[in-house]
Amino acid sequence: MIRYLPHDELRWRFSDFATARNILQQRRTKRTGRIGTVAQARALSALELGLGIKQRGYNIFVVGAPGTGRTSTVEKLLADKASKEATPDDVVLLYNFNDRDRPHSVTLPPSFGPKLKKSYELLMERVLNHLEKAFEADSYMMAKQVIQDECREKTDVALKEIEAEAKDNSFVLSHTGVSITLTPANSEGDALTEEEFDKLSEKEKQRLEQTAEKLESKLEDSMRKVRTAEKESEDALEELERDTAKSAIAGIFENYRQTWKAQKRVVSHINAIEDDILARIRRLIHDEKPPAQESNEPIPATNIKRR
Questions:
Q1: I need a surface site. Which of 26, 123, 186, 295 has the fewest CB within 10 A?
Q2: Segment 250-286, tens digit of pLDDT
Q3: Which pTM was predicted?
Q4: CA–CA separation, 215 vs 38, rounded Å?
Q5: Contact criterion met (CB below 8 Å) for 37 and 30
Q6: CA 68-52-49 angle, 5° bins
Q7: Per-residue CA distances from 51 to 41, 60, 71, 85, 236 (Å)
Q8: Could you tell me which of 246, 248, 245, 266 has the C-alpha nearest to residue 257?
Q9: How far apart are alpha carbons 109 and 87 in whole angstroms?
Q10: 159, 298 in Cβ contact below 8 A?
């Protein structure tokens, strides 16, 4: 038989607050010790089982009504478990100089990760300071000047040879910007103007053309000498810069190798840093914008012009 219930029979009122306090106090003294786990023994067992699984690919999903202590219970379980286990190793990512999109993953003892980061910061600071001092030293500046003077001397000799040859054949060799111009000379030794050239006979014009062709061939030979001198100068400067940099930073890197000698992969990476700095030393010591070409620098042979 169906009986309609009055509203006062549809609820239950808890008025024994002393009993409630006892229940809460007992819960606080449990091993899991978080409000919200009353009558959740199976849930706690499942959490403990899940936290005990060491393999990858396993996850724990916790669901429940708000205020039931889901987060606090899981946090307490994790804190208790973590306090009984060994501190995990640090995992750091080190730049890969061969493939920048695939950094090296290196495992270090606990708390060594921040120490390595700080060590690298100090390393680069010391390296840059030592490089700056090394390339401002008088010994480096003097050695660089000697190489540049030797190149300029060889270039001047090569250009003077062709200039003398041009003068003997009544031609003027002149530099205009980034080109070298061979122009027939008049009786006063100045470059022949177009009007003066037009007044010459066809025979004389033909003779000048033949002479110009011979001079251009010799000019090419002179410019090959210039390019050779420039290449030798560049190689010498590069070797000087590398040797100067290596002398300046070798001691620093050796100290850091000794500091991290117990970590073989870190030492290997320190070696890679040193090699990369030496390979890119020209970028570090030269301005990004190339200096303007000096008027007494040799002109590339690809810019030879003839009137």
A1: 295
A2: 999 999 999 999 999 999 999 999 999 999 998 887 7
A3: 0.61
A4: 104
A5: yes
A6: 50
A7: 15, 8, 15, 12, 64
A8: 266
A9: 9
A10: yes
